[in-house]
């Protein structure tokens, strides 16, 4: 079994990048939705022009980091439906590459390539890449938290701050995702830093 900290080769990175780009272009871009997918994506578009959570632009709690990213992309892409789809494709591509590198370190390039293809062509991933939505961010941050938690579990305490930062960033885009990933990261942090949870619980009780 390969070490989880062993760096992937440059050839493998190029290979998976080509797979990501080909898969995304063929299965997403040419069949993407022409209009905003749902009320949430419409509210995000309104929030770019006038950020006002009180008026539902966007809906609470506001998704500030997503709006900020949209504002940046909107500087070069006029259509906010397309801007959201571009962001989604970017996050999915990043998630796939990170996922590939992680599996490559564990089980080798062949298994990593198969896992990456299965991820990219999962029906739910294809669907959410074809419309304007924030779910691709969930995918990327979830993969990132999983990778960092695995490294923490193996004793690499130095990545702890990055895992906490990933949760914080996710909370600025998808609060529900942060809530779901926080226990995983928390348990990994406890193990990596050898924290005595019993003492903490006792202190809190007192």
Structural class by helix and strand composition: mainly alpha
Secondary-structure element pattern, one letter each: HHHHHHHHHH
Number of helices: 10
DSSP summary, beta strand count? 0
Average pLDDT metric: 81
Give the biggest sheet: none
Comma- or semicolon-separated keywords:
single chain, 206 residues, mainly alpha, flat, disordered N terminus
Write the layout of secondary structure elements.
Layout: H1 10-27, H2 39-49, H3 64-74, H4 80-107, H5 109-120, H6 123-129, H7 135-153, H8 160-171, H9 175-192, H10 197-205
Helix pairs in contact: 1-4, 1-5, 2-3, 3-4, 4-5, 4-7, 7-8, 7-9, 8-9
What does this structure look like?
This protein is mainly alpha-helical. Helices cover 70% and strands 0% of the residues. Helix 1 (10-27) packs parallel to helix 5 and helix 4 (80-107) packs antiparallel against helix 5 (109-120).
Explain briefly what this protein structure is.
This protein has 206 residues and is mainly alpha-helical.
